[in-house]
C-alpha cells in the first residue's frame, strides 16, 4: 500500500476529480430563460413605490450646513488615518468641534 | 443597431454563430467563424468581430492577445454596444469590476434596453454590493421583460437585500401566482420558503405562520417546514402547539440538540429533577440515542450526576467508543464534575486490572479492550488537566499491551507535543501513520507534526501519499485551498526567520479568501435559475463576513508580526537568512544551514525534473485524452495567478502598509478580539499615530482577559512614554489624550505605575516579564535588573509558567528585547526554563558538536537552539531511529533530571 496506491482507488479518485470539475463547469453554462405567462406588470409595479426616508434627508441637510475648517479635517485625517469623507462627516456630526470629533473617533 | 459597420446577411449569420459558440463554450468553432469573416478583406477590420474574437481567445487563456483585439475592435466601432459589452466582459474576467461597470454603462448608452447587458450589469452590482444600483437595474429588467422568471426573482431579492420586505414579499407573491407546482415541485417549495423567510426577517410572525400553513402541501422540505413552524410558534408564545411540533421533530431526529433546547423552553422545567424528566421521557422512546443521555450531564449535580455519568461511561467503554472524552469535554469546566469522573474512572481501572470487572459486585466479566479504552480515556483526562507526565505513563503502559493501536500513538504524540517535545511527538505520530497509511486524517496529523518540528520537506513527502501525481505537493495543496497546511508552514517559517517564505504562505491564504469571494460571481445567475434562493441569500451574507474565519485570523497574525519585524529590522538580501541571524551564528552552523538549504533546493529541482518527465510520458500515452481536456487546461491556464516571490515579499519598502492590509479585515470582522487591537496599536506605534494608539489601547483595555493584561501593560507604558517624549503635538491631540490619561493610569507617574504592576506580578512570570520589559523600555540601563528579576522568579509549585510563556520569553530575549545579553545569562535563563519543562526541545541544550566545532563554542550554540534542535531532529526523522532520539534526549537532560523529577512531583501535587 505504501507509496504505490491501489490503482482502483486512483481511478476512482481521478473520476471524482473530473466529475466534480465538470459539475463546477456546469454552473457557468448558458441556459435559456424560461418564459412565464405574461401579465400586466404595470399594475403591480405601480403599487410598489420606493420610500425615501424623509427624516434622514433632513438630517443630511442639517449636516451639510455645519461649517468646518480645512485644517481640522486634515488633522483628523492624518491623526486617525481615515478618509476625507469620513473625517468631514465626523467633524460635521460634532458641530465642527475638532477635539470632540477626535474623542468620538477614539471612543468608536 | 447603432453599429457603424453593418454586415451583409451571410456574414451577419456567421457573426451570430460566433455569439452562440461563445455562449456554449465552443471556443474553437467560434474562432473558426471569426476567421471566416475576418479573412474577407472587406471585413478584416470589422470591430464587433474583432472584439468577439478577442473575448473568445481570452477564454482560452490568451489574455494579452485578447486585450489587443478587443481594444482594436472598439476603436474601429466606438458606437457599437457589442464592442463595449465585450470590453466590459473582458475586464470583468480580469477582476477589474469598476472598469467593467463603466464599460457596461457605455454599452447601455448605445442600446439602453439591451437585456444581456443589463443582466451582466446587475450581476456585477450585486457582486460589488451596490445594492441600490442593483435594485434599479433589476427594476428595469422587470419592466422590460416581465415574462421571465429571473426578472421577478431578481427584483424581489434586490428589495430583500435592502430590507424592503414589503415590496420583496409582494413581488414574490405576484410571481408565485404564475407558478404551477406540478412543473417543478421542489423549486416552488423553495420559492415559498424564501418568501416565508422574508416575512420572518420582517418580524411578521403571525403572517409568516399563516403563509406557512397555507402552503404546507406545496413545500417539499418537510423538516425545514416543521422547524420554521416551531420557531414561529415559539416567537408567538404558542407553547402548547409548539410542543407538538418539537416532539414531531424529535421523532425525526433525536440527536439534534436544538430541539431539546426548544423543548425545555416550552415545558419550562422548574428544577433539576423536572429538567431531567424531560430527557428521560425522550430516552425511554429512543433508548439508543446519545443526546438524551449526554445532555443531562451538563446540568445535573452531585449523586445524580455521578449515577448518570457512571452509566454512560461504562456503556461507552464497553462498546469501545474512542471519542468518549470528546463527548465529556464540555463538562471539564466544572472541577467538581472532573473529580467525580476521575474517581469513577480510577475505580474502573483498578477493578478491571484486578478482576476484569467495572466493580467487584458486577457479575459479568469485561473483555480486555474495556481496560484499554478506560486507560485511553484516563490519558486524555490527565492531559487535559495538564498532568502530562501522568498521562504519558498511562499511554506507555497501554502501548506495552497494544502496540498497534493508532489512537494510542496519536495520543502519545499529542501529550509529547504538550510537553514541548516536538521531535518525540513527531516520531510517535509517524509511527501512528505507518500503522495505517491509507488513513488520511492521521497522515495530515503526521504532516502537521513534522512541520511543527521544522521539517517541511519531510511533511511534503508524507502529504504526497494523498496528493495528485504529477503535481508538486505545495501546488496541489494550494489548489485545494488547504489552509491549515499553509498556516502551519507559515508559522514554522516565521519561527526560523525565513520571513519571505512565511509571508508567501500568508498571502496564499489571503488569496484563497479572495478567490472564495470571487467564486460567488457564478452563482448570482445560477441560484436564480435553480431557485435556491434561501441558500443564495445565506451565501451572500457568508461572503460578506468571510474573513472572520479563524484561518484568516491566523494567517493575518503571522503576516502582521512578520511585517512588524521587517519594519524594525529591514530584510537584507542574500541566502534567505537575515544578516542579523548570521551575526549570531557561528560559521560552522552557518555552513550547515546553507548546506541544508542547498540540499533542499537540489532535491526540489530533481523532483521538478522528474515531474516534468512523467508529464511528458503520460502526455505521449494519452494524447487523445489530453485533447479532450484541452478546454479545461486552457481555462486553468487562464486562471493561473502569478506566484508570490518570497524574496520580493520580504524586501517590501512599506511593511507597515502591508501589515495594515491584513489588519483591516480583522478590524471589520474580529473587533471583539484582543489581538486585533493589539496589532493596531503596534502598527500605529511605529507610524507615530498617538490617537490611533490611544484608540486601540482603549479597545484592548475593554477586551483583555487576565493573560492579555500582561501585554496590555506593556502597551500602556509604551504609550505613556511616547506621549511624554513627544514634541510638537497638535493642541487638539494633546487635549484629547489628557482627557483619557486618568482613565488609563490614575494619577500615577509611569515609573510608579510600573513598579506597582511589578509588585502585583510576583506570582506570574508572564506578567513579571511584562513589567520587566516596561522597566527596560523606560530606562535602557536597567537590563541587569530586568534579567535578575526573571531569574529570581519564585517558582512555587502553583506558579510554574506555561511552556508557551517560557517560549515567548526566550524568543523575545533572542529578538534583543533587553539588547545584547551575556551568553551566561541566556544560558541561566534557559536552564531555568528547562527545569520547568524538561522535555521541551526548545530549551534543550545543543547536542555535542560533531564537526570541527571546538567545545568552548558550545555556549555560542545555545543562543540559537531552535536551529539546532531542528538539526538534531533531522537526524532522528525515521521512526526506526527512535531509540537514538530518546538516548540523546536522556543525555541532554541528565543534569537536570533531578530538578525535573522535583517539578513532576510538584505538578502532580499541585493539581
TrEMBL record, chain A:
Region of interest: Disordered: 1-28
GO process terms (BP): negative regulation of apoptotic process; protein stabilization
Composition bias, Basic and acidic residues: 16-28
InterPro entries according to UniProt: Huntingtin-int_K (IPR052617), HYPK_UBA (IPR038922), NAC-like_UBA (IPR044034)
Record CDD domains: UBA_HYPK
Nascent polypeptide-associated complex subunit alpha-like UBA domain ranges (all copies): 66-106
UniProt-recorded name of the protein: Huntingtin-interacting protein K-like
TrEMBL record, chain B:
Residue ranges of the region described as Disordered: 590-644, 861-911
Listed Pfam families: NatA_aux_su, TPR_8
Residue spans of the TPR repeats: 81-114
Keywords: Coiled coil, Repeat, TPR repeat, Transferase
Compositional bias segments (type: Basic residues): 593-602
Coiled-coil annotated spans: 195-222
Biased composition (Polar residues): 888-899
GO cellular component: NatA complex
Top-level taxon of the source organism: Eukaryota
Keyword Coiled coil listed: yes
UniProt keyword Repeat, yes or no: yes
Composition bias type Basic and acidic residues, residue spans: 603-619, 630-644
GO molecular function annotation: transferase activity
SMART domains, alphabetized: TPR (SM00028)
Identification of the protein by name: N-alpha-acetyltransferase 16, NatA auxiliary subunit-like
Gene designation per UniProt: Naa16
